[in-house]
Amino acid sequence: MDDLECFMTNPPPTPTRPLLGLTVLIVEDSRYASEAMRMLCLRSGARIRRADSLASARKHLRVYRPTAVIVDMGLPDGSGAELIAELSAVAPRVGVIIATSGDPATEPTALAAGADGFLEKPVVTLTAFQEAILAHLPEEDQPPGPRLVNTDEITPDPIALQDDLAHIEDVIAHGADGNTRAYLTQFMSSIAHSAKDEPLARKADGLLSGSSKPPSAYDVSALLSSLRTRLDLHAVM
């Protein structure tokens, strides 16, 4: 059965694919993190749609109603909490709203905005991803019978990291004011958490939390240089 046939027939979920028949909108600006979510959705049976900003997500939501929305807390045109609050206030409400971030300190803000749950990056196991959605589905939408516990970990294509790096360099090339530098630092922190690069993640997180002022151009350039070096080493390996 191909993807189009699955879409048309809307088959029931199975123990190995408990999200079969569901549509998940991923609101995420990182290609690497999006690739991880795409693999998790496909392995779970869910259809996936992606938006890379608040504006793009709102366009998607004017066209169709997903079963679940997973929202990154740091987006190029604002906080994911804005979209979460909007989704929570609309009737009928989207079935499941999940926030995600590499920074666990954003969880209270996400929940206060109306998120049903929070996924800390990196999200790599099928079971954790599936349970985050299934735990908040209405009873009538729950898959019947027992589910298999799957501890397999997914590994996104490292080429997606290069796409993220190209995005950072493109934003810098067009000029970066204080708000943009703060966004880029947050974006690199997200990449570092998703790629499990804890030293780089700590460095980025320190720039975000160490001062009330946005990171300087020097800080962003130094962080970008560190990220580029790590990606180059990864490519060689």
Question: How does this structure look, described?
Answer:
Pfam families: Response_reg. The protein has 237 residues and is an alpha/beta fold. It has two domains: 3-141, 3-Layer(aba) Sandwich (Rossmann fold), CATH 3.40.50; 159-236, no CATH class. The chain contains ten helices and seven strands. The chain has helices at residues 3-9, 31-44, 54-63, 80-89, 107-113, 126-134, 159-173, 178-194, 198-209, 217-236; strands at residues 23-27, 47-51, 68-72, 74-75, 78-79, 96-101, 117-120. The strands form two sheets. It has a five-stranded parallel sheet, with helices on both faces. Helix 8 (178-194) runs antiparallel to helix 9 and helix 8 packs parallel to helix 10. The longest helix is centred in the last third of the chain and has 20 residues, at 217-236. Mean pLDDT is 86; it is low at 1-8.
